[in-house]
């Protein structure tokens, strides 16, 4: 009975749909002399920019020094997004959310909207940042916001519309302590931390609203992974998986009929076929599971003679 239950569970779940959701992300700033000591005459914000990513703290991490690749440093000190964009575009675990300028050019009640942002369930965390300008190295941010709700019965598991406060953080790369500053590099860099003292006093400097638009189940990935061919089957131990082009196949897993994972193989990019030697396994029936980078999977029976 245990064997049958495991087999049925895998066969019924042969296809796992890669899900996406669309959100509008809007930020409205708060900057006043009551909460933040003063408002410089040229107070403003750098373009709002961000990323969706696979892991918590993939893009930004509080309590540690800013990376030497300078994405966060340059945003916090000058508002430049070039290094940040390069970091995200070369990171296989993150997807860039293109920047959008604030309007009007002002400290208080200035807004920026990132509309129609598509979030993939493989990259469910969102981080967004913008420079507090002028400042030595301060920026507002929300970090690693999980857009998945854990309730698949509502919005396919994506969160409903919600809002959060945004606070100011010190990038730890400049030692000046007021809005107007001279360039005073911090060496070595201090950990990124909230600006809890003068002049911002730990008060919020913006609110961000994630507006849920829609979500989909991606059938395209399912069709692609379904077209993979595994042969020979039955086999004496050596098999080939072909038609890998454009599938983004990530891993191959082999299970015994009792549900024990007996082999796990990572797949390199840009290969058209994969030759596997499973001759170390005992003769019998197994289940082979293919999983791609978008969360789609395909499972089928494999017999080793």
How does this structure look, described?
There is one protein chain. The chain has 305 residues and is mainly beta. The protein has two domains: 198 residues, F-spondin domain (Immunoglobulin-like), CATH 2.60.40; 78 residues, Immunoglobulin-like (Sandwich), CATH 2.60.40.3080. The protein is 13% helix and 41% strand. Strands 1, 2, 3, 4, 5, 6, 7, 8, 9 and 10 form a ten-stranded antiparallel sheet that branches. A four-stranded antiparallel sheet has the order 14-13-16-17. Strand 13 and strand 14 form a beta hairpin. Helix 3 packs antiparallel against helix 4. The N terminus is likely disordered.
Under the CATH scheme, the architecture of the largest domain is Sandwich
Secondary-structure content class: mainly beta
In whole angstroms, how far apart are the ends? 24 Å
Number of helices: 5
Output the radius of gyration.
24 Å
- Quaternary organisation of the protein chains: single chain
H/E topology pattern: HEHEEHHEEEEEEEHEEEEEEE
> What do we call the CATH homologous superfamily of the largest domain?
F-spondin domain
Count of extended strands: 17
Mean pLDDT: 89
The geometry reads as elongated
Q: What's the CATH first level of the largest domain? A: Mainly Beta
Q: What is the CATH topology classification name of the largest domain?
A: Immunoglobulin-like
Residue stretches low in confidence (pLDDT < 50, at least 5 long) are: 1-17
| Helicity, as a percent range | 10-25%
Strand content: 35-45%
Number of domains: 2
Question: Main β-sheet, in a few words?
Answer: 10 strands, antiparallel
């Amino acid at each position: 009975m245990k064997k049958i239950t495991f087999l049925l569970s895998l066969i019924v779940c042969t296809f796992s749909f890669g899900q996406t959701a669309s959100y509008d992300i809007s930020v409205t700033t708060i900057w006043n002399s009551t909460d933040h000591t003063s408002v410089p005459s040229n107070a403003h914000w750098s373009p709002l920019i961000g990323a969706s990513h696979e892991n918590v703290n993939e893009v930004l991490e509080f309590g540690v020094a800013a990376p030497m690749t300078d994405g966060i440093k340059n945003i916090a000190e000058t508002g430049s997004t070039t290094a940040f964009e390069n970091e995200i575009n070369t990171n296989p675990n993150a997807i860039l959310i293109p920047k959008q300028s604030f309007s009007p050019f002002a400290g208080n009640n200035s807004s920026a909207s990132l509309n129609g942002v598509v979030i993939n369930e493989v990259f469910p965390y969102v981080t967004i940042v913008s420079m507090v300008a002028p400042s030595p190295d301060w920026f507002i941010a929300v970090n690693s916001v999980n857009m998945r709700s854990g309730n698949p019965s509502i919005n396919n598991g994506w969160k409903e519309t919600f809002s959060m406060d945004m606070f100011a953080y010190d990038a730890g790369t400049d030692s000046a302590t007021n809005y107007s500053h001279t360039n005073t590099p911090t060496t070595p860099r201090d950990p990124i931390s909230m600006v809890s003292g003068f002049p911002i006093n730990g008060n919020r400097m913006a609110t961000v609203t994630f507006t849920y638009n829609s979500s989909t189940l991606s059938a395209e990935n399912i069709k692609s992974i379904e077209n993979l061919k595994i042969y020979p089957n039955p086999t004496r131990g050596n098999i080939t998986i072909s038609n890998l082009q454009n599938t983004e196949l990530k891993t191959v897993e082999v299970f015994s009929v009792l549900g024990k994972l007996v082999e796990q193989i990572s797949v390199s990019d840009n290969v058209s076929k994969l030759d596997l030697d499973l001759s170390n396994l005992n003769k019998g029936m197994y289940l082979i599971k293919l999983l791609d980078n978008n969360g789609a999977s395909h499972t089928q029976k494999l017999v080793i003679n």
